[in-house]
Amino acid sequence: MSTSEMTAERPQRQQGLDYDAIIVGAGISGMYQLYKLRELGMNVRVLEAGTGVGGTWYWNRYPGARFDSESYSYGYSFSDELLQEWNWTEHFSPQPETLKYLNFVADKFDLRRDIEFRTRVTAAHFKADQRLWEIRSEAGKVYRCRFFIPAVGPLSAPTMPRIDGIPSFEGASYHTATWPHEPVSFEGKRVAVIGTGATGVQTIQEVAKTVGHLTVFQRTPNWCKPLKNRKITEDEQRRIKAAYDEIFKRCDETFSCFLHTPDPRSAMEVSAEEREAFLEKLYETPGFGMWQGNFRDMLTNREANKVVSDFVAGKIRQRVNDPVVAEKLIPKNHGFGTRRVPMESGYYEVYNQPNVELVDINETPIERITPKGIRTSDREYEFDMIIYATGFDAVTGSFDRIDIRGTDGLALKDRWKGSIETFLGIMVDRFPNMMMLVGPHTALGNIPRSIEYNVEWVAGLLGYMQQHKLSFAEPTPGAVEEWTANVRKHAEGLLSNEIDSWMTGVNRNIDGKTTRIVARYSGSAPAYRAWCDRVAAANYEGVDFA
Ligand code: NA7
Q1: I want to staple 157 with a disulfide (CB 3.0 to 4.6 A). Which of 61, 311, 393, 454 is the partner?
Q2: Beta bridge partners of residue 149, listed in sequence order
Q3: Which helix (H) or strand (E) holds 185?
Q4: Range of the domain at 426
Q5: Does the residue 44 lie in any domain?
Q6: Ligand 1 centre from 201 Cα, in Å?
């Protein structure tokens, strides 16, 4: 299609509109959505709170931050030229390299000219009479657009713990997700880390390399697995570049878009020797193999899960010298893989260092942060620095931070009170012309793969609307109900429902987020895409264009 044809087909921009679409967030999803909507000839603005592109990889600059997905399975797949031009230097890329990559993408496709940085969106209201969205920034600027596309990410609203006295601390304090741009030295310092999720584990093992003394405050231990990262050799680089088609085909076929996918066998149908050999192999496999490529029933069958958990517990006991410390590091309230598995490189050995101490705050709870450090029920610890690796108000938190209102002034927060309901994780009834990227109820997994699919689906929908001169899209309540029921059905019987985590929507640092909910779609990514493809092929059945 020529440019003139595209322009001819494009509906005239309604009077009073500043943009056809506003995308909130210049992370992986927002950047690609901008690229795709430009192809439709749309006038698009991206509003980004940070000073640069990259989203997650812009904000999370904490020490040790890196991919847990193989680098070459994580980057964008849409441009062969980009794939051939970019060299990943490690199998699991460190954050500075990933941020460099996303800047490279922004430059290559000249994305920055449509991105407004330092612009935090505080409100988005649908004006039914004019059929437009009014977006408001923190600075008070108002933008009017037809389509509102929150690309705000599922893990981008950091949360601090609910502990008294945090502002009173006289040393340096950092949350991992708002880490400063300047280097931070730990040399000779007394450092505390609160939190032992995927972020805490990466931080702890890095800080431990140079710290004076490190104290880790652990509430719940997680099952961690060796990452087995290494540099990519020149020969591997050539082979990776030649194999991109196969790599992305593989990601398309696997359960969660990783290179790893569940083994078709049950853990209970193989002999003990065979099982042990398989688990040993998985433990040595780089990346998420042990989590994503384990026996098919590991996450649904208690017995199968116990076999794997016992195996990993044995590894922890072998790696940690002090048996009392080892027991504290072994999760007792959930099985392997039922929460996000942190990837580590020497994490357990950190606790063999004479200058590292583990405090189990179930035994001695934190009472308050003091000017000098942290007081537990047992004693006061003095620190020069406290690092909060306490996670995010996940999945819906980044939406909740914006005052999003649909028809009749209904707040999205209220629409989702008690239970999240969506159409394909992309749309919500009573919020016309709002298309979420990696919103609740989408297939998360190896996230850029899910992002590319979501973005292309949204571009497909907007292209269809352009072609048919439609300016309004809202999912029907029936379509929302059907999709939500499907999401709930897939969550049934999962052992991950039996433990609090960000994946079950629990964050005890936030009011109203203390009960478990179905926040994610837990079916396979291919099944998710098949459903969305069916909807698109049926002229977006379930979407009301009236
Ligand atoms: P997570 O996985 O939510 O971990 C947060 C950690 O902080 C976890 O160990 C929490 O313990 C701990 N935490 C939270 N609040 C407190 C309080 N009040 N006191 C003590 N400890 C606390 O976040 P991450 O940033 O590690 O990872 C999030 C995802 O980002 C990750 O899965 C990747 O996909 C990227 P708890 O387990 O709740 O007892």
Answers
A1: 393
A2: 23
A3: none
A4: 3-53+111-157+394-477+528-544
A5: yes
A6: 10
Radius of gyration for the alpha carbons in the chain, expressed in angstroms and rounded: 24
Residues with Cβ within 6 A of ligand 1? 155, 161-163, 194-200, 219-220, 340, 361, 389-392, 502, 509
Quick check: 456 and 35 in contact, CB under 8 A?
Answer: no
Tell me, yes or no, whether 14 lies in a domain.
yes
**Overall number of domains in the chain:** 1
Q: What are phi and psi of 338, to 5 degrees?
A: -80, -10
Structure tokens at 256: 């969660």
For the stretch 339-379, pLDDT in tens is 999 999 999 999 999 999 999 999 999 999 999 999 999 99
Which of 218, 341, 390, 511 for a ligand 1 pocket mutation test, highest count of atoms within 8 Å of Cβ?
390
Looking at residue 345, its amino acid is: S
Evaluate whether residue 368 is within a structural domain.
Answer: no
CB contact at 8 A, 375 and 361: no
Phi-psi region of 64 (alpha: psi -120 to 50; beta: other; left: phi over 0): left
Q: What is the reported pTM?
A: 0.96
Name the residue type at position 182: E
pLDDT tens per residue across span 87-130:
999 999 999 999 999 999 999 999 999 999 999 999 999 999 99
Query: Which residues, listed in sequence order, are joined to residue 263 by a DSSP beta bridge?
Result: 295
What the block records as the tokens of 48 is 């980004």
- List, in order, residues 6 or more apart from 362 with CB less than 8 Å away: 219
Instruction: Report the C-alpha gap between 493 and 3 in whole angstroms.
Output: 51
Q: 214-243 as b/e, with b when 16 or more CB fall inside 10 Å? A: bbbbbbbbbbbbbbebeebeeeeeeebbee
Give residue 115's Cα distance to chain centre: 22
Euclidean distance between CA atoms 188 and 494, whole angstroms = 45
Q: Is residue 342 part of a domain?
A: no
405 Cα: distance to centroid of ligand 1 (angstroms): 30
